[in-house]
Design a protein that fits this description.
The chain is of the alpha/beta class. It is about 55% helix and about 10% strand. It contains 16 helices and 10 strands. β8, α11 and β9 (about 275-280) form a beta-alpha-beta unit. α6 (about 115-130) runs antiparallel to α7 (about 135-155), α7 (about 135-155) crosses α12 (about 300-340) and α8 (about 165-180) crosses α9 (about 195-205).
Length: about 450
């Protein structure tokens, strides 16, 4: 039977300069999939590459040869020998490979536990594998199962419900204050990475429009274009407070850029509609006294960090429940995988029974000339029903023994009993007795 193997590296096992080499190769939409497909020791293959991980999932009938071939291919991408690459790699086989894939899909193995992006990346990689016909019966089933396991973990646990990044925590706070963000307008003061991440989360949660103010106009324009937003001159951003609902500030200013008096003036024009500030700059951009103004809510990076730490602990707790789900689903997949070993025998048994049925019906009908079309159809239905009922118990037995340690013995007996192999010699009486004695002893 083919073995399932997963070989990879991630942020825990390899430094960024190693991960970068594999990520660059995968700018090509198909990555190394075509090269994997050409390895004779592999039957099916799947390749995943993100900024934090690279993994090859494959099936092989020759375990050592398959592992060696894949490591050799990866070493070629790395530009070094397999020995130089091996310290960064991990290898999982069969059940361990299945569990690892499920953990990755559920984001238990991510840098940020519970982040949702990895599942989309796995789905994209699977689509590429199907396009080049690199995956087959086993990997198709396994990857689809990973999607359903991830969905179940998201549904039955709270692993993705708590903010674990500063920008995401800011948006979650905004949702608590406003109830919902549909129709709201957000102003980003500063156009750095934190502002960019916050903009992504805001738009995902329904914010109507993003406005950007930055000392460098080019940077403001670039960020606004990315999110279909607009810009305001740096000198005029305070005037925007009359229309804005959410302000996220992350400049590098050594002193506050917005005073409580500036905010108080604009609140009169707003008719006291709530105004929400997130100050994630160090030093702080916004005068702390702003928090004393009615209907104004100000949070700084320390407030958010406290939320993040609480939520991170909550996600780790939920990860334990997710691991329990994964363990159960991995066992179910293993049970399905074992049934594949009995499938050829079941198929052969059905085919032989159908051949006998068709031959006997044809022989009988050739001697009965006066039958109508309906009567002929009735004979076919009758004989099919008899064959189906006769085969029901043997097939059920074969499915049940798929998980037993001595399944190979039972499969051999079944194939001999029904003479399913053309080159199978006639069984002698002594051999029959030996098989029966062995079965009784077991």
């Amino acid at each position: 039977m083919d073995r399932i193997v997963l070989i990879g590296l991630n942020h825990k096992t390899a430094p960024v300069e190693i991960r970068e080499r594999f990520n660059i190769v995968c700018v090509d939409s198909k990555g190394p999939l075509s090269d994997l497909a050409r390895l004779p020791s592999l039957r099916e293959s799947f390749y995943l590459s993100t900024c934090n991980r690279m993994e090859v999932l494959f099936t092989t009938p020759r375990l050592d040869e398959g592992i060696s071939a894949v490591v050799g291919l990866l070493a070629g991408i790395y530009g070094q020998t397999g020995a130089a690459l091996k310290p960064y790699l991990y290898t999982y086989i069969d059940q361990d490979a299945v569990k690892h894939l499920f953990r990755v899909a559920c984001s238990l193995d991510s840098m940020v536990v519970g982040e949702p992006q990895i599942l989309g990346q796995i789905k994209d990689a699977y689509r590429q594998a199907t396009e080049v016909k690199a995956s087959g019966v086993i990997l198709n089933r396994l990857l689809h199962k990973s999607f359903s396991v991830a969905k179940r973990v998201r549904t039955e646990t709270r692993i993705g419900s708590s903010a674990v990044s500063i920008s995401y925590a800011a948006v979650e706070l905004a949702k608590k204050i406003f109830g919902e963000l549909q129709g709201k307008i957000a102003l980003l003061i500063g156009a750095g990475e934190m502002a960019e991440l916050a903009a992504e989360h805001l738009l995902t949660n329904g914010v109507e429009r993003i406005v950007v103010a930055n000392r460098t106009l080019e940077r403001a324009l670039a960020l606004a274009r990315r999110f279909n937003g607009s810009t305001v001159p740096w000198e005029e951003f305070a005037e925007e407070l009359r229309k804005i609902d959410i302000i996220i500030s992350s400049t590098g200013s050594p002193e506050p850029i917005l005073t409580s008096e500036q905010v108080r003036k604009r609140m009169r024009a707003r008719r006291n509609r709530p105004l929400f500030f997130i100050d994630i700059a160090v030093p702080r951009d916004i005068d702390p006294d702003v928090n004393h103004i009615d209907n104004v809510y100000l949070y700084n990076i320390d407030d958010l960090q406290g939320i993040v730490e609480i939520n991170r602990a909550e996600r780790i707790k939920e990860a334990g429940r997710a691991e329990h789900i994964i363990a159960g689903e991995a066992l179910k997949f293993d049970a399905w995988l074992r049934t594949l070993e009995v499938v050829p025998t079941i198929v052969s048994l059905r085919e032989k029974a159908e051949e006998i049925r068709e031959a006997e019906v044809h022989k009988t009908l050739s001697q009965l000339d006066s039958l109508s079309g309906g009567e002929i159809e009735a004979i076919h239905v009758l004989t099919q029903s008899v064959v189906s009922k006769l085969l029901h118990d043997p097939i059920l037995f074969l499915k049940r023994i798929s998980t037993r340690s001595r399944k190979d013995f039972y499969l051999d007996v079944a194939r001999k009993l029904f003479h399913l192999d053309e080159d199978q010699p006639e069984t002698e009486e002594g051999e029959d007795q030996l098989s029966l004695d062995s079965d009784k002893a077991s």
